[in-house]
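hey so i finally got around to running the thing on that chain from the lab meeting. sorry it took forever, my laptop kept dying and i had to restart like 3 times. anyway pasting the input first so we r on the same page abt which one it is
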Amino acid sequence: MSKFFDFLSNPVKINIKSLWKPIGLLAALYIFILSITLLGASFKLFGKDFAETLLATTSNPIVGLFIGILATSIIQSSSTTTSIVVGMVAGGLISIEGAIPIVMGANIGTTITNTMVSLAHIKRSQEFGRAFSGAIVHDIYNVLAVILLFPIQYFTNFLGRMALFLESAFENAGGLQFASPINVITKPVAKYFIHLLGDSSWLSAIVAILLLFIALKFMVDIMKSMVLSRVEGFFSRTVFKTTFRALTLGIILTAIVQSSSITTSIVVPLVGAGVLTLRQIYPYTLGANVGTTVTAIMAALVTQNSAAAAVSFSHLLF
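ok and heres what got predicted. didnt touch it at all, straight out
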């Protein structure tokens, strides 16, 4: 009789033991995403008004480029910056020509999150080398795109012209609204943390960074303790098997999450652990850059303003 009960109980024990690592990985991933959300929310406590003031005071394209970088570094969200710019264009505060360099700068400013994530691996030199390389893929692409396109835009306004052409096709489109599932599960918790910390932006930011490092440590440790070859096989042969698949995943995931910082930061620890290569994450990063434009396009369609729509389409074009 005892053997019968042992037979029934053993499979349960084995299953429970095999499940704790995936559950722990999901929990660490949630804390990781929560930390990024909390970091962005804490910066917004003292950064959004400052960013709006900065954005409204520029007319020089070169100054606008650097203000876009600075404002997005403060807000920690290119989607927020571009949405603010779209609203200002709709309100007549900024011209289309003045808005495009700011959006270009926002694309560079949003990459700071990846670099911060890679710093969690700094104690392990090999891991840090891989993670940092993976983190700056986003930086290098956006910086090179700006180096190439900014002078052309400065002298010809070709992005503005192309964006106005695209806008004409959506002139009578209605507004769209979409709630990010990531925001649904993380924003209430982030708001609770901020309230618990007395609405202190600095204290909230410190807690967010601590949570970020803790979550990343657990994510890397759990992935290492799991059968790495199986994990590597799943990502290499399934999720990132082809360039097109990685590109599509980047577009769809970022459009759903509404944050390229989150989607690109997720793969940094995977690169650090040796699960993914730089060649594999490059098309994924490109897809994230396309997916992040969805928020600004939806914001522009809500305003039903042709100039605002043109700015959002200029973001899509580069």
